[in-house]
Amino acid sequence: MSRIYDDQPLTNLPLINIEYSGKWNANDFMQGNGVIFEGVVQKRAHFAINDQQHKKEQYYILYVKISRAHRRKFDASGEEIEPNFSETKKVNTGYLNSSYKVQSKGETDRLGTDEARKLISPANLTQFSDRHGGSDLAALWLTETQATGTEFELGDTLRVKTQGDGPFVFSITKLDAVSTTVGNYAGGESVGASWTDKIMDIKSHAAASENQGADDNEWDD
């Protein structure tokens, strides 16, 4: 795709004041497992949330057109594991890489793009974000801390994990940057390795295991 350039940094975006009725608590929108998705930044905004208790918090909003998405998945102990990218997998049946059969993997964790957008778009927040972006775009909310040190421009391709089934970012990676590990966030603090190293490396370990799947990129199944 052709890249859309925008030299204006996030910090220079005009501040949009939002009057929030009631008590503002971002944790109210972080229930559920969350979503992993990829998409392209189409618009950006800078919000200041003001609630009735005079609490004020600022967020940068990235409006993203989702291209593919899956549910985040956790085991019984609460550790994040690789999502089920498809309902089937290729299993080696011999010593040759070309010898395999297709087996069921169970229900896929894949989400349709509209399904993913709606899942992370609570009405209490889209009433504000849709005015400045568009109802067909996912509005991602980043804290000022999360945006520090990384510039997100129009046309950037991102891989994102949300904090629960809402618009708040748990981790974010620019896929078209020189280094794909540009920033990872949990609870507003930067962490070391990328989520692809922590979660998606299961695929590389599995590739060396006996009778394991053969696809290089299950996102495209």
Give your account of this protein's structure:
With 221 residues, the protein is of the alpha+beta class. 14% of the residues lie in helices and 35% in strands. The protein contains four helices and 13 strands. The chain has helices spanning 113-119, 123-129, 144-147, 195-207; strands at residues 15-20, 35-51, 56-71, 73-74, 80-81, 88-92, 100-104, 110-111, 138-143, 157-162, 169-174, 185-186, 189-190. Strands 1, 2, 3, 8, 9, 10 and 11 form a seven-stranded mixed beta sheet that branches. The chain has a two-stranded antiparallel sheet with strand order 4-5. A two-stranded antiparallel ribbon has the order 6-7. The longest helix has 13 residues, at 195-207. The radius of gyration is 19 Å and the shape is globular. The two termini are 21 Å apart. The model is unreliable at 1-5 and 177-216 (pLDDT under 50).
SSE run: EEEEEEEEHHEHEEEEH
Any idea what the shape is?
globular
- Which sheet architecture does the biggest sheet show? 7 strands, mixed
Strand content: 25-35%
How far apart are the first and last residues' alpha carbons, in Å? 21 Å
- Helices, by number, come to 4
Q: Please estimate the helix content.
A: 10-25%
Using the CA coordinates, give the radius of gyration.
19 Å
Q: Mean pLDDT score, rounded?
A: 77
